[in-house]
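Progress note, sequence design subtask.
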């Protein structure tokens, strides 16, 4: 298998992040089988992280969640979501992709969290059974709105370490997404935390200084914010929604 030149993310004034590099092992990488046959992963993985905030972008099915889940497993997190206390101890129990990855650290993160929007409800139930709710704002996550429970987790449990988040915007209004950006800034700016985030939100993707890695092609490639499909489609739609409606629905539409 041909090895790609490693992608190097932009530097950070706070120094190197916790996770420095992720690469795949050729002997465990079979591009004819799933998930190695996903186009963006099929030529191998070699990404170097030098910034504290990295976004993974791409269409549905491009491999974002698959890659983040594998990274979470390699970091000792449960692939269903949680911290190291909920991780898989046995290497053989990891997914095929997780077994094929090797991580290099500038400083090992002993704390952190993996969040999957789609399994957050199950995690909230687990927390009620085993944890002190004061650590989550003093209120059951099930007794808060979906968006409130997400922000409660971010604000009360995110302190220091590596945070791997899969579509955290799923329950957040635009205003709450801005609040989430403030949480990211308060943790990453002083070098306390590193974030690896898969998202479709153009608001979250706008975070200053973040690196965007696109999985829409035949390899993982760094792109700028304004090059992302998420930004361009949102911009064009807001500028002229009637053009999209005409294409989608045919004929003419009344003015908005």
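Output:
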């Amino acid at each position: 298998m041909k090895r790609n030149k490693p992608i190097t993310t932009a530097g950070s004034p706070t120094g190197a992040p916790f996770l420095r590099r992720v690469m795949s092992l050729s002997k465990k990488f079979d591009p004819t089988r799933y998930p190695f046959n996903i186009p963006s992963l099929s030529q191998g993985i070699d990404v170097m992280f030098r910034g504290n905030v990295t976004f993974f972008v791409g269409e549905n099915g491009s491999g974002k969640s698959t890659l983040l889940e594998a990274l979470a497993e390699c970091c000792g997190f449960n692939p269903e979501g949680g911290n190291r206390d909920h991780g898989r101890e046995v290497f053989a129990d990891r997914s095929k992709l997780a077994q094929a990855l090797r991580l290099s650290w500038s400083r090992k993160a002993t704390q952190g969290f993996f969040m999957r929007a789609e399994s957050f409800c199950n995690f909230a139930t687990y927390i009620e059974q085993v944890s002190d709710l004061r650590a989550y704002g003093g209120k059951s996550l099930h007794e808060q709105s979906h968006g409130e429970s997400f922000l409660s987790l971010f604000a009360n449990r995110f302190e220091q370490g590596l945070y791997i988040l899969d579509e955290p915007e799923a329950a957040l209004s635009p205003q709450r997404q801005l609040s989430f950006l403030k949480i990211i800034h308060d943790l990453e700016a002083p070098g306390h935390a590193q974030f690896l985030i898969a998202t479709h939100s153009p608001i979250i993707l706008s975070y200053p200084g973040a690196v965007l890695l696109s999985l829409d092609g035949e390899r993982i490639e760094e792109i700028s914010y304004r090059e992302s499909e998420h930004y361009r489609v949102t911009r064009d739609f807001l500028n002229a929604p009637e053009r999209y409606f005409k294409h989608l629905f045919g004929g003419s539409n009344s003015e908005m």
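The longest helix spans residues 174-188. Work on this subtask will continue into the next period as scheduled.
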